[in-house]
């Protein structure tokens, strides 16, 4: 099993490509069901990513249903690829969503939410290790965003696959997860 980011990124992108639509839905639902056991439901502001379907990311629709059923404030983001900074917006019935040039569904408009307000963040990833380090697509959007959140903000990775033992090339600027939820189990770091 590879242990550096570049090889792990490639390995998990390939594993993801092999998932059928059915696998994707079943695993996404299992992840949402496993989230219910976490001690996170007393918060108000939850940040959720909208999946890039072409990359076979976790379908967060089930999580959105969970959150709206619990009357939570849902926050989604827009990415600026020049600055690599994300801006955050409240998801409401009036929010228009449009895919950007990278097929990321993003809000067109909305009420801005500062990162410091967000209490729980569901984090997309390709792989993670037993220490709570994660590998994303390598653009650093989430590390920048999470660094701007309050230290007590709960960071929850969502992964179709179980952890690797270690990631060798972790940087100091990489923000660790508090939990990672897979279809099989919940990891606490």
Automatic annotation (TrEMBL):
Keywords: ATP-binding, Ligase, Magnesium, Metal-binding, Nucleotide-binding. This is 5-formyltetrahydrofolate cyclo-ligase. The lineage of its organism: Bacteria, Pseudomonadati, Bacteroidota, Flavobacteriia, Flavobacteriales. GO terms for molecular function: 5-formyltetrahydrofolate cyclo-ligase activity; ATP binding; metal ion binding. Its cofactor is Mg(2+). SUPFAM superfamilies: NagB/RpiA/CoA transferase-like. Belongs to the 5-formyltetrahydrofolate cyclo-ligase family. Substrate binds at residues 52, 57. It catalyses: (6S)-5-formyl-5,6,7,8-tetrahydrofolate + ATP = (6R)-5,10-methenyltetrahydrofolate + ADP + phosphate. The keyword Repeat does not apply. Its EC number is 6.3.3.2. ATP binds at residues 5-9, 134-142. It comes from the Bacteria. It is an enzyme of class 6 (ligase). One of its GO terms (biological process) is folic acid-containing compound biosynthetic process. It comes from Flavobacterium pectinovorum.
């Amino acid at each position: 099993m590879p242990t550096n980011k570049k090889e792990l990124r490639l390995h998990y992108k390939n594993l993801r490509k092999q998932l059928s639509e059915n696998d994707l839905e079943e695993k996404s639902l299992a992840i949402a069901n496993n989230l219910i056991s976490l001690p996170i439901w007393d918060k108000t502001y939850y940040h959720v990513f909208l999946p890039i379907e072409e990359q076979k990311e976790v379908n967060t629709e089930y999580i959105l249903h969970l959150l709206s059923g619990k009357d939570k404030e849902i926050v989604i983001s827009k990415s600026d690829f020049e600055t690599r900074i994300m801006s955050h917006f409240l998801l409401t019935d009036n929010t228009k969503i449009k895919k950007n040039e990278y097929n990321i569904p993003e809000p067109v408009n909305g009420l801005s939410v500062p990162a410091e307000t967000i209490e729980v963040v569901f984090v997309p990833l390709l792989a993670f290790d037993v220490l709570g380090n994660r590998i994303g697509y390598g653009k650093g959007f989430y590390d920048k965003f999470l660094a701007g959140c309050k230290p007590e903000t709960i960071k929850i990775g969502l992964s179709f696959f179980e952890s690797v033992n270690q990631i060798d090339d972790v940087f100091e600027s990489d923000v660790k997860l508090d939990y990672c939820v897979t279809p099989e189990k919940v990891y606490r770091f």
